[in-house]
Amino acid sequence: MRRPRARRGRVIAVTAVVVASVAGAAVAASVWRQGLPSELAEPLAARVTEILEKSSPAEHHEHGHEFGEDAGKVVCAVEPFGVAPENASSVSEVRWVYARHMCAITGAGADWAMSVRVSGPLAVRLKDPVEVRVPEPGAGYPDRVRLVIPPRYHEEAFAEFADDEVIEAARRRFTEAR
């Protein structure tokens, strides 16, 4: 009689371990998908946004953006998804930021819906000299993204913005800048 109970106890124990493992994996995947911790993501997003928005039209051209000299003000949304070194725990330790970005130009009379915009993944070196790497658009674009973004972040590089508020905040700043 004891054997069936013992066997049943082992089955229950194994089932509990499997369920806990699956739940733990789901939580880990969720945390990974959310990206960087906010104490890194928020200041890095602000720093990269500042770098992009203060760039001249010529510098944007070097980044692969075609805004023109009379474009107006550049307004960007930035959502970091990775850093180098990977184990950086403070902004001062970060050398490279990997992020999704979307930049729009205020232009002459263009509203947000009609503005010229560019978006995609980019890499920004924060240490002097600051450097922005944006994969060139066109045929072979995914391969160029993979050259700019480390393999561990490839899935995130091709993902959409996870937080709609990032885009909404840029839209509000765009409207205010016009």
Task: Please give a structural write-up.
With 178 residues, the chain is of the alpha+beta class. It has helices at 2-34, 38-54, 57-62, 141-148, 154-157, 164-177, and strands spanning 74-84, 96-105, 117-125, 131-133. The protein folds into two domains: 1-34; 36-177, no CATH class. The chain has six helices and four strands. It has a four-stranded antiparallel beta sheet. The chain is globular.
Short description:
This protein has 178 residues and is α+β, with helices and mostly antiparallel strands. It has 6 helices and 4 strands.
Helix proportion: 40-55%
Give the averaged pLDDT, no decimals. Answer: 80
Rounded to the nearest angstrom, the distance between the terminal CA atoms is 81 Å
Strand count, sense and barrel status of the largest sheet are: 4 strands, antiparallel
Beta percentage is 15-25%
* Total separate domains: 2
What structural class do you assign from the helix and strand content?
alpha+beta
Please tell me how large the radius of gyration is: 22 Å
Low-pLDDT sequence parts:
8-33
Q: What oligomeric state do the depicted chains represent?
A: single chain
The total of helices stands at: 6
Strand line-up in the sheet with most strands: 1-2-3-4
Which series of helices and strands comes N to C?
HHHEEEEHHH
Query: What overall form do the CA principal axes indicate?
Result: globular
Number of strands: 4
Topology:
Layout: H1 2-34, H2 38-54, H3 57-62, E1 74-84, E2 96-105, E3 117-125, E4 131-133, H4 141-148, H5 154-157, H6 164-177
Antiparallel strand pairs: 1-2, 2-3, 3-4
